[in-house]
């Protein structure tokens, strides 16, 4: 069980859920100290110390991925599941957002996910089995202001993994897309402003969002049921997933209002 973005938020919560079930875990993110903290929590939740591998990884560093895959294979012999959970958000108007920020969003949220998936996919094809998952977003289904780059990246991720699912379904490989709504994580704090600096604020929608452990439990239930797509959230944004099809104008108005950061309201 390899989870990227495992140092906090949904990734950490999923790691704890899998630890409680006795899974062998690979925890990846950029901050090794935070990964070590999560490892301690995983062991406390029921995992065996020797079966939790801390593997620092920057998903934007494609060159490091072959060695990372080999490290996992050396430790556990195979890779049965990869959860592409690393990601970066945005809080800035299009006109104020530098192209460098747009490129960063795509490197982390799209190309990084594709590169690691490709590296692991070869192993799964050799095994004849495996499970790929990616944490996308409701933003991968609809647009929201101040998130033009983020929405574009998440739409791209949904397209890639939907296509991959059709490509590998006859090879014993299952593909799951996860579309969270507002969940209580540091996603807005870590989001990029138009100049590339951190937003450093928690959106009120995020603060009032779904508890991250509850979110992880819903995702785990979706995995067990073999769902191709797992929508998870409790707010009005979740209704947009079906409302957009029948009432696109209404969803546009809701997105314009709900998606606006507090400081821009």
Please tell me about this protein's structure.
The chain is of the alpha/beta class and 265 residues long. It has one domain: NAD(P)-binding Rossmann-like Domain (Rossmann fold, 3-Layer(aba) Sandwich). Helices cover 46% and strands 12% of the residues. The chain has nine helices and seven strands; from the N terminus they run βαβαβαβαβαβααβαα. The chain has a seven-stranded parallel sheet, sandwiched between helices. α1 (9-20) links the parallel β1 and β2. The longest helix is centred in the middle third of the chain and has 29 residues, at 99-127. It is globular, with a radius of gyration of 18 Å. It starts with a strand and ends in a 7-residue tail after the last helix.
Sum this structure up briefly.
Helix content is 46%, strand content 12%. It has helices at 9-20, 32-45, 65-76, 99-127, 148-168, 204-207, 212-224, 240-246, 248-258; strands spanning 2-4, 25-28, 52-54, 81-84, 130-135, 173-180, 229-232.
Radius of gyration: 18 Å
The CATH first-level class comes to Alpha Beta
Helix content: 40-55%
What's the number of extended β-strand segments? 7
Biggest sheet, in brief?
A: 7 strands, parallel
What would CATH call the homologous superfamily?
NAD(P)-binding Rossmann-like Domain
Q: How far apart are the first and last residues' alpha carbons, in Å? A: 41 Å
Oligomer: single chain
What is the residue-mean pLDDT, rounded to a whole number? Answer: 92
Any guess at the CATH architecture? 3-Layer(aba) Sandwich
Q: Per the principal axes of the C-alpha atoms, what is the gross shape? A: globular
Q: Hey, roughly how much beta strand do the residues contain?
A: 5-15%
């Amino acid at each position: 069980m390899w989870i990227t973005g495992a140092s906090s938020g949904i990734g950490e919560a999923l790691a704890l859920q899998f630890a409680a079930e006795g899974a062998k875990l690979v925890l990846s993110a950029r901050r090794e100290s935070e990964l070590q903290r999560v490892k301690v929590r995983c062991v406390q939740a029921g995992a065996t110390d020797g079966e939790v591998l801390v593997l620092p990884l920057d998903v934007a560093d494609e060159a490091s991925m072959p060695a990372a895959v080999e490290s996992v294979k050396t430790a556990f012999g195979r890779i049965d599941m990869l959860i592409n959970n690393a990601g970066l958000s945005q809080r800035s108007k299009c006109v104020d957002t530098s192209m460098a920020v747009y490129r960063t969003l795509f490197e982390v949220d799209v190309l990084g996910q594709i590169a690691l998936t490709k590296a692991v996919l070869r192993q799964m094809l050799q095994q004849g089995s495996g499970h790929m998952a990616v944490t996308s977003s409701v933003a991968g289904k609809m647009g929201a202001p101040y998130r033009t780059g983020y929405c574009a990246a998440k739409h791209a991720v949904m397209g890639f993994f939907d296509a991959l699912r059709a490509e590998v379904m006859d090879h014993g490989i299952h593909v799951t897309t996860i579309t969270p709504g507002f969940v209580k994580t540091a996603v807005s704090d870590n989001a990029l402003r138009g100049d590339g600096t951190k937003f450093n604020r928690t959106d009120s929608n995020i603060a009032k969002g779904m508890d991250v452990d509850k979110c992880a439990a819903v995702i785990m239930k979706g995995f067990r049921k073999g769902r191709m797509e797992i929508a998870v959230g409790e707010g009005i944004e979740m209704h947009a997933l079906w409302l957009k099809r029948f009432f696109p104008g209404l969803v546009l108005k809701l997105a314009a209002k709900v998606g606006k950061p507090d400081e821009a309201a």
